[in-house]
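Postdoc handover notes: sequence design on the structure in folder B. Input C-alpha cells:
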C-alpha cells in the first residue's frame, strides 16, 4: 500500500492484513471541550460570599493541560489576581488555586514551545519546510507498521504534544486532532503484515517512512527522523535519538502514526475477534498469548515474530489506556 495524504483523520485501514470541585484541578475532565472561564470583569467578587464564589467556579470547567490555550492562562491569572486582593482568607485560597493552575499551564506551554526551539537547532538555516517522521508498530506480534510525516505551521504550539507512548489513549486522540489543526501537511505510510514478513521489520519500517514522506503534498526541505536516518529517502535528513520526546514535528508524527495504527487495529479486531486487538493493538500481552494458544495465528499475525521469540518474548500489559510503541 502506498502512502497517503490527510487533511483530517486518516482513512480506514488497508486489507485484512493491515496493508470541577471548586475549581476542578488542571488535568481533570473528559473529552468534551471545556467551557472557558467567564471574563473576570463581568463579576464583582466583593458582592459574592465565599460559598457563592466556590459555586461559581465549580460550574466553570477548568482548562486541562492538553487543551489549554494562551487565553485560558490569561483568564486564570486575571481571576486569580482579582480574588487575591480580597480580604477574606477563603477567597484568597481560591485565588491561589487559580494562580497555581495558571502556572502549571504556563509550564506546559513552555515545554511544548521548547520542542519547537529544539527543532530549529537541528535544521539548517535555509530549511523552511521541515517534516518530522516517526513510526508506530515495530514491536507487535500482529498488524502493520505505520509511519507519519508531519510539517507543522511555523510557531505552532500543540497543547499536550509529547511522545505518543507517554499520552493516555483518550488524550492522544485529542492531541491528534490538535496536531492536524496545527499542521501544514501530513503524510501517512503503511507497510502491512506481508511486507513485514518479506522485508523484515527494519525494511518495512523504512518503507513506511519513505511512503509517509512521499505522501506529503509538498516536498520538504529537510526531514527529521526519530532515531536514525532513512536509507534511500533522497532528501536532506537527520536522525534524532529520542526525537519523539524532544522535537515538535517528530512528536507530532509520533501521535499521528500511533493513532492511525490504533484505529487500524480496532478494525482488524472486528475482522479477527478473540485476540483482543482492540485493547492490545497486537502487542505481546498475556491476553494475546492466551488467545494465540487457544485460536492459533490469524492472517494479521507476523509469523516470523511468533517463530523467533515464542512466548519468551517479554509480555507488556498496557496501563491506563496506554499501549507500547
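Designed sequence:
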Amino acid at each position: 500500500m502506498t502512502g497517503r495524504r490527510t487533511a483530517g483523520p486518516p482513512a480506514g485501514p488497508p486489507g485484512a492484513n493491515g496493508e470541577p470541585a471548586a475549581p476542578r484541578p488542571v488535568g481533570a475532565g473528559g473529552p468534551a471541550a471545556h467551557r472557558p472561564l467567564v471574563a473576570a470583569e463581568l463579576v464583582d467578587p466583593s458582592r459574592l460570599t465565599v460559598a457563592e464564589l466556590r459555586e461559581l467556579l465549580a460550574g466553570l470547567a477548568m482548562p486541562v493541560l492538553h487543551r489549554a490555550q494562551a487565553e485560558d492562562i490569561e483568564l486564570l491569572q486575571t481571576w486569580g489576581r482579582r480574588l487575591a486582593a480580597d480580604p477574606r482568607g477563603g477567597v484568597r485560597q481560591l485565588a491561589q488555586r487559580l494562580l497555581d493552575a495558571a502556572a502549571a499551564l504556563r509550564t506546559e506551554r513552555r515545554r511544548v514551545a521548547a520542542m519547537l526551539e529544539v527543532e530549529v537547532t537541528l535544521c539548517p538555516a535555509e530549511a523552511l519546510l521541515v517534516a518530522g517522521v516517526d513510526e508506530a508498530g515495530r514491536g507487535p506480534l500482529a498488524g502493520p507498521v505505520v509511519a507519519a510525516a508531519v510539517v507543522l505551521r511555523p510557531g505552532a504550539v500543540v497543547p499536550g504534544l509529547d511522545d505518543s507512548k507517554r499520552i493516555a489513549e483518550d488524550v492522544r486522540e485529542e492531541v491528534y486532532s490538535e496536531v492536524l489543526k496545527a499542521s501544514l501537511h501530513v503524510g501517512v505510510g503503511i507497510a502491512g503484515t506481508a511486507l513485514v514478513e518479506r522485508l523484515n521489520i527494519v525494511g518495512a519500517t523504512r518503507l513506511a517512512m519513505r511512503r509517509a514522506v512521499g505522501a506529503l503534498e509538498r516536498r520538504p526541505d529537510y526531514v527529521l527522523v526519530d532515531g536514525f536516518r532513512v536509507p534511500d529517502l533522497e532528501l536532506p535528513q537527520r536522525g534524532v535519538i529520542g526525537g519523539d520526546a524532544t522535537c515538535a514535528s517528530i512528536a507530532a508524527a509520533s501521535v499521528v502514526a500511533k493513532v492511525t495504527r490504533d484505529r487500524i487495529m480496532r478494525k482488524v479486531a472486528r475482522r479477527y475477534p478473540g485476540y483482543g486487538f482492540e485493547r492490545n493493538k497486537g502487542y505481546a500481552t498475556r491476553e494475546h498469548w492466551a488467545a494465540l494458544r487457544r485460536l492459533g495465528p490469524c492472517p494479521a499475525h507476523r509469523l516470523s515474530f511468533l517463530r523467533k521469540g515464542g512466548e519468551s518474548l517479554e509480555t507488556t500489559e498496557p496501563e491506563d489506556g496506554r499501549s507500547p510503541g
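Context for whoever picks this up: Residues 40-118 form one domain. Don't rerun without checking with the PI first.
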